[in-house]
Amino acid sequence: MPDGAMPVLDVRDLKTVFQTRGGEVHAVNDVSFALRPGELLGVVGESGSGKSVTMMSLLGLLPSPPADVRDGQVMFGGKDLLKVSMDELRAVRGGEIGFVFQDPMTSLNPVYTVGFQLMEPLRKHMGMNKRQAAKRAQELLELVGIPDARRRLDDYPHQFSGGMRQRVMIAIALACDPKVLIADEPTTALDVTIQAQILELMKELRDKLGMAVIWITHDLGVIAGIADRVMVMYAGQVVEHAPVKELFGNPQHPYTRALLKTIPSIAGERAARLTIIEGQPPIMGAAPSACPFRDRCDVAFERCAHENPPRYDVGHGHDTACFFDARTGAPRDA
Amino acid sequence: MLDAARKPLVSVRDLKMHFPIYAGLFRRRVGEVKAVDGVSFDVFEGETLGLVGESGCGKSTCGRAVLRLYDITDGSITIEGREIGQTPQPDLRPMRPTMQMVFQDPQASLNPRMTVEDIIKEPLDEHTTLTDAEKREKVGELMDAVGLNRKFAKRYPHAFSGGQRQRIGIARALALNPKFIVCDEPIAALDVSIQAQVVNLLEDLQEQFGLTYLFISHDLSMVRHIATRVAVMYLGKVVELAPREGLYADPLHPYTNALLSAVPEPDPSLARKSERIILQGDVPSPSNPPKGCNFCTRCPSVMDICKEVEPDYREVKPGRFVACHLFNEINDTASQMAGTEDKKSTNKEKTL
């Protein structure tokens, strides 16, 4: 991966807190990452690890209150998205940054035709007239592989199947030629054979349109097949970040290693027993003062209970937030 | 073959579950959803039969129908040598203790107003004459068995995590010492790191209590881990049934092949090696299945005959059942076209 290119999106020390009746929940803690043009960054983590909240914080999509984006910097096109006005942000959302949500069943409006919903961003962001927008909408549906696109523009969402609806969602997100596409678990609600279709489509579109993609998922298999780089999140933090082959071939963080062992494979050796990660993810009631994984970790030691590990660079564009050095099999120097 | 010597605990023959569709001003019956349309299989004692397929293929309906949670349209179900296919619901009650179910969504299948103890105790109240103290002791034992702390017996389901709730559901299913448990997507609602915990628990309990599972799932890699044999369903029918190793190493039916190749492989070095089969289009509606083979609209190796004649479900190799014309000899096909009924009936009597 060439490191020289300027990132299209640069996120630094993002911190998001939810105010709830039971106290604060620190959902995102000091998350930093950079997205380079044309690359596909996979974000993996279990539910509650803060992957969706991170992405929604970037675009100010979280209702406030309860959400409070407390700190950080999101540089996009020379501006800090956390500081710009609502109008400017609205121009970015759906325009230069497209968003595909998890559930294609609920994120389309059932009372408008698919054509109307596709033309809306085109008219709002690109200033097209009705005729131009209709033409472009048809092209977009063709781009995402919906047959008989012209006629389908007049159909309502319920007339499409799940896979087709997700294609429509992708088409809407692509409408204004975004520089960045954020896809939040876009295939989780779909069947495997349909998921395979969407994954192929995404790879094809990325090559064709050259946009950068952030792909959020909990499925390591999907990541292995599609991502260039991977960021593993746990309890609102980035615990490991590496190029995809490096991550799967040489995982450094104990959580990543355990996660990779947990999932049974469809090919290869069949384990007699699955390796499990004992315990539950922590409840993030306060800003972490220790490693959040220490209670479930098999290499945890003293220091893990007192300090939250920073991200250590381990070479090959790979970093990990762990005091234990998996390469030497010993704790890092304090 | 090993299986021939073993006794089937559950035998399902030609099971059909059709749901009527009513429409129009007078709510007239205009058709039916053929959710399960002629399914036959055996589950042997102590084994785990995996039932896989995409959403809407009828796998959950099949699991529920086998336990007679529905009044089935047609077919026969034998559990422990007793035919229950057409038994009226009241007569089924005494049989319920032997056959239990673990549901997909632990959130929805536990009553939020009952404590954990009451939830696990309910089957004991219904089916046994134990004293309160004995019941409490039994509940404690069950909680130990599924790895829940006894101290939590008085808590309500909302106080537990998803994985723990699924353990409560499993404890409830175990309460009456069942022989046969239908697990309907027991891990689908759980996180990856929790899924393995529940699957290991199910395996431990199987060993400990000699349980037989029908494990319904869409997760092919998890089924490969837990199942002894695997049945693949598509649009209300079983298209292939085979021992685990055979099915994953050498899938016979084109649908099984496509399904397996669609599963993302969590190892990039393996992932990019094999050519993927991407199926085109979507699953047809079960209220209006295509003529001939159900899979003919998406099959990569479709032939003319597939669009005309429905393939028979037959044993093509020892222990391997497939419903596909690719595995029929020419003369077989000819006799089918003539519509010989006796061949079908002999097929049915064979152990599936």
Description:
Chain A: Its main location: membrane. Chain A: InterPro entries: AAA+_ATPase (IPR003593), ABC_Ni/Peptide_Import (IPR050388), ABC_transporter-like_ATP-bd (IPR003439), ABC_transporter-like_CS (IPR017871), Oligopep_ABC_C (IPR013563), P-loop_NTPase (IPR027417). Chain A: Keywords: ATP-binding, Cell membrane, Membrane, Nucleotide-binding, Transport. Chain A: It is found in: Cell inner membrane. The complex is a heterodimer of chains A (334) and B (352). Chain A has 334 residues and is an alpha/beta fold. Chain A has a domain at 9-96 and 176-248: P-loop containing nucleotide triphosphate hydrolases (Rossmann fold). Chain A is built from ten helices and 14 strands. In chain A, helix 3 (114-126) packs across helix 4 and helix 4 packs across helix 6. The longest helix of chain A has 18 residues, at 192-209. Chain A is globular and about 65 Å long. The two termini of chain A are 31 Å apart. Helix content of chain B is 33%, strand content 23%. Chain B has an eight-stranded mixed beta sheet with strand order 6-7-8-3-9-10-12-11, with helices on both faces. The radius of gyration of chain B is 22 Å and the shape is globular. Chain B starts with a helix and ends with a helix. The model of chain B is unreliable at 330-351 (pLDDT under 50).
Helical residue percent of chain A? 25-40%
CATH class designation of chain B: Alpha Beta
CATH architecture descriptor text of chain B: 3-Layer(aba) Sandwich
Low-confidence stretches of chain A: none
Secondary-structure-based class of chain A equals alpha/beta
Topology summary:
The complex is a heterodimer of chains A (334) and B (352).
Chain A: E1 9-20, E2 23-35, E3 40-44, H1 51-58, E4 67-76, E5 79-80, H2 86-92, E6 97-100, H3 114-126, H4 130-143, H5 149-152, H6 162-174, E7 180-184, H7 192-209, E8 212-217, H8 220-226, E9 229-234, E10 237-243, H9 244-249, H10 254-262, E11 312-313, E12 319-320, E13 324-325, E14 330-331
Parallel strand pairs in A: 3-8, 3-9, 6-7, 7-8
Antiparallel strand pairs in A: 1-2, 1-4, 4-5, 9-10, 10-12, 11-12, 13-14
Helix pairs in contact in A: 3-4, 4-6
Chain B: H1 2-5, E1 8-23, E2 28-44, E3 48-52, H2 59-66, E4 74-79, E5 82-83, H3 89-92, E6 99-102, H4 116-127, H5 132-145, H6 162-174, E7 180-184, H7 192-209, E8 212-217, H8 220-226, E9 229-234, E10 237-243, H9 244-249, H10 254-262, H11 268-271, E11 314-317, E12 320-322, H12 330-338, H13 341-349
Parallel strand pairs in B: 3-8, 3-9, 6-7, 7-8
Antiparallel strand pairs in B: 1-2, 1-4, 4-5, 9-10, 10-12, 11-12
Helix pairs in contact in B: 4-5, 4-6, 5-6, 6-7
Pfam family, one (chain B): oligo_HPY
GO biological process, one term (chain B): peptide transport
Subcellular location (chain B): Cell inner membrane
